[in-house]
Amino acid sequence: MAPKEFTVNEQHRLSRRGVLKAAGGVTAALALGGAGAVASATAAGAAPGDGSGLRIVDRNEGDPRMKYYRFATSAIGWNPGVNVLLPDDYDSGRTYPVLYLLHGGGGDFIEFDRAGIRDWTAGKPIIVVMPDGGHAGWYSNPVTSNVGPRNWETFHISQLIPWVEANFRVYAEYDGRAVAGFSMGGFGALKYAAKYYGHFASVSTHSGPASLRGFGGLVTHWANASSAAADLAGGTVYGVPWDEARVTADNPMERVPSYRDKRILLVAGTTPEGIWQQVNEVTVLNTQREFRGALDRAGIPYEAHEESGGHEIRPDMFRHDIDGIIDRLRKA
């Protein structure tokens, strides 16, 4: 594995006190990320008998590259959508590595299509799977829900991955899979890569927090408050008081050895503006720095970028990341 590369465009000392002051003592209403929308689709159909537990209730496969599906699943109390972006030469019959790309809070499965994922992957030999994760689902099975099942972790890991591997020509192995995400999705990527060690050979977080307990436990409080407001009608991801075992199981900082032998990319902004940017990206930057320190102490290499700007999708960093993912994974 290549040695750690650390590039810093700007470095600001951003303190926990400054973040809490910017937040005014109020937890953010929505998890890290931006607003979402709903896609249109065409005729529905039935999923093959692939053992995933998913049933297709809506689909659009008319685009030569971007395929859309909506599923009925016992894991989620509504029908989540998924976009599957195929490489330009998918008709060649080759088998491809696959990237699971997770959206931010307040977003949805179309987030990266809006941002430019088709252009970022043009001509590149990789399949990209982009699932719904809830407006503030935090890529978790919540401790409590007042709106029925919202078990995003079960949906992604136990249902979606088997469905993808049964229905597309992907490498169904460690060296064939990567996970990445923006904001809340960046946390989800870090969580999934460690908690399900044998699933993903590459993990990337773009403006995603990397510690649940650090920085005064702000990210855990944030996950609870945002999920209660946006997804669970007062239920919470981690419980009140916290389910400490659940926090430990999901916390990247407490699973550092599980990142060994993986490609790791961390991206954070250094110049956030406005109160919500401060709450989001200051927390991201500080928790990523804490996480990098833990990786350093464990002798685990990584690539880190501190970029000017705030809490935002950076197309140049995603292009760079996709190239790195392709280099790390099994070749098509």
TrEMBL record:
The keyword rRNA-binding does not apply. GO terms for molecular function: diacylglycerol O-acyltransferase activity; trehalose O-mycolyltransferase activity. It is an enzyme of class 2 (transferase). Keywords: Acyltransferase, Transferase. SUPFAM superfamilies: alpha/beta-Hydrolases. InterPro entries: AB_hydrolase_fold (IPR029058), Esterase-like (IPR000801), Mycobacterial_A85_antigen (IPR050583), TAT_signal (IPR006311). It holds the Pfam family Esterase. It comes from the Bacteria. Its EC number is 2.3.1.122, 2.3.1.20. It catalyses: an acyl-CoA + a 1,2-diacyl-sn-glycerol = a triacyl-sn-glycerol + CoA; 2 alpha,alpha'-trehalose 6-mycolate = alpha,alpha'-trehalose 6,6'-bismycolate + alpha,alpha-trehalose. Belongs to the mycobacterial A85 antigen family. PANTHER family: DIACYLGLYCEROL ACYLTRANSFERASE_MYCOLYLTRANSFERASE AG85A, ENTEROCHELIN ESTERASE-RELATED. This is Acyl-CoA:diacylglycerol acyltransferase.
